[in-house]
Amino acid sequence: MNKKNNKAAEENDNFRCGFVTIFGRANTGKSTLLNSMLGNKLSITSNKPQTTRNKITGILNRDDSQIIFIDTPGIGAAKGVMGNNLVRIAYGSLNSADIILVIIDALAGITREDEKILSRTTDTGAIVYLVINKIDLIGKQNILLMIESMKKYKHIKEFIPVSAKKGTNLERLIACVSNDLPVAHRYFDDDLITDRPEEFVFSEFIREKIYRLLKQEVPYSTLVEVNEIKEGKNEVLVVSANIFVEKESQKGIIVGKNGEMIKKIGTSAREDIEEFTGCKVFLDLHVRVKPRWTEDIDTLHKHGYTTEEN
Length: 310
Description:
- The chain contains 9 helices and 9 strands.
- It has 310 residues and is α/β, with parallel strands linked by helices.
């Protein structure tokens, strides 16, 4: 998906464009917030840590601005080699941000990890917002007390309470972000919602279903790789993908009795891919064993789970 050259002839001198990093602890609703602001499902969600494993770019095109959101892995859910790499990816995303949205879970309150995260944003040079999510779950007075307690962080420009799930206050958040971006021409074509290839987006949809349907630790040991996307008969999009796990026993869990679980995963993921593409889809899934892939740097690097430091 190609970047676009400056469009000076199409945009006025007040057009704004820049990068906005969505940052915070695991399970604060970062990915739900991104999807709600875009009005499209792009970043996968579940109630399990490490659901977001990569930086996900979501592009919101407006008449007066292009907002390039970067959804990041959650802080505080690190497990093993991959988990530590994901935390480095998240912190590394702060370096290129024009604006940082630090997301707080209103129901959980301000945690020690939240305080640590906010402290790390003081010297980035970016504009920092504190976004208090899930306000539909607590009372207004508690929200006000939370905001008051965080005013000690003088570098926070905006305190914005929202409900990503219900859409509350998102227009205000988007308007504030748009106004604070630097004056610049578009970075991407105005018909894109992400710079990620379809293979990545489809693999994430599949991985989300594994996270949502399986309650064991299996999801953390799964890797999804889309091998092929092609047009089949009657304009049906044929998508072939492998689901890798670390143990033979995990393969059995994902396949399920008489193949029932893999059918559920495939059906649910296919529906998301069809909604995303607007096409009929045939999804062909295979489960394979790849021992200790979560500790293999080459595999982690291939799938974007490492930083340049690795």
